[in-house]
Amino acid sequence: MQCNKQRKKFLMEQVELVLGHPSVLLTIKEFSRVTGHNEYDLRKACARDEIRHHQSHKGATYRIHFTELDPFFPQEVAA
Q1: DSSP label at 48?
Q2: Percentages helix, strand, coil for the chain, rounded to the nearest 5?
Q3: Angle between helices 39-47 and 28-35 (to 10 degrees)
């Protein structure tokens, strides 16, 4: 999903608010903290390719781009 500039700014603000620093690539734990969703469920969603992610090799840490947070925040919140 493509995010416009304003939406990206909103999502990055959410990351900074929760983590205390900006981060483009998030771990499962960080993604969980920002969204409030269970780490196990997020890991399963990554394994099923429901959340786009990067994993350098099998067993490596999932890295999720911050724009993947978009579906977890309703559009009217960003208004």
Answers
A1: T
A2: 55, 10, 40
A3: 120
